[in-house]
């Protein structure tokens, strides 16, 4: 077996399953899950129609690079969304969702032959970044976010000798789980570091179309172009239809940026066997070409956040995120519970599932920046999210003044 597999930590949802193994959910309440970031709004009809209408394509092997029509549709979306003119033949590549692409990209660009390099990622973070780094023979370096600065990552705390040995930087803006959006100045700092040290930037932008207010979140390619780096050297952006169009099961997205990196990534994927099926390509063309369903989707999230956030803010430290569909809430100190204990007790007493923040981060110098927080995914319909929020308020008020030993799980 590959010995690097032993370095992987259990995935957050496996840890959550183990955490809840001895918990009996309150039978008096219907189950509500805010734990998993899986969009549950209806998939657009135009995507369904395109998928069903192109089933004849199942009789053919697809090209790894995708059909020209799909690449053109993705490039047209980049033009409309960010004002960028990319060559769809050399600067863009369809992928089977951003998750598999983020993992595979690390295997493409990491060279561990001179000793393990660093892969820098935010902390808290999407666990694929860590797994991709470890299985590529690299060492993850965790750059912690700062709650005092709206959870902006403290890139200045990364030592110079780490940047010198860094080959890949994972970014996530809007962030998971914090919802923080990187401003242009932060992008320019990281682009300058990339230019100085030669590392590649992988910009995970799968939440870019779910935002609370205008203007839309700045994209990595957009920031590079605004900084005079129109060739996008050492920069690749990853995006997906899963959140934008409520089709996580479609497994469709694309990467775009540095043509040299796209060329190498295409070579890797040719052997990896990751071509997108023809019917999925047709459905993806329909999705990238339509904005009405995206606007309607965004409006539904805005309504949920506008109603749920003030309610939860009565009992928890929580604020409207810049973007994304998560609330990153602090467990009240008065409970005497850590984030895992809070999740257990909430499930046991009110049948609501949340994800402990410590599962989404790693301890740095003895401190886990996710500890004491929980991530709530507002992916269900508005009324169900409101029910969950009302139960959390009841839970908080009934336990705030009780001694920790009396809070049953």
From TrEMBL:
Q: Which InterPro entries match?
A: Aminotransferase_I/II_large (IPR004839), DapC_beta/gammaproteobac (IPR019878), LL-DAP_aminotransferase (IPR050881), PyrdxlP-dep_Trfase (IPR015424), PyrdxlP-dep_Trfase_major (IPR015421), PyrdxlP-dep_Trfase_small (IPR015422)
Q: What cofactors are annotated for this protein?
A: pyridoxal 5'-phosphate
Domain Aminotransferase class I/classII large, first and last residues per copy: 32-392
Instruction: Report if keyword Transferase is assigned.
Output: yes
- Cleavable signal peptide: none
Q: Which UniProt keywords apply?
A: Aminotransferase, Transferase
Q: What Pfam family is a match for this entry?
A: Aminotran_1_2
Top-level taxonomic group: Bacteria
The record's top EC class is transferase
Q: Which terms under GO biological process does the entry name?
A: lysine biosynthetic process via diaminopimelate
What name has this protein been given in UniProt? Succinyldiaminopimelate aminotransferase
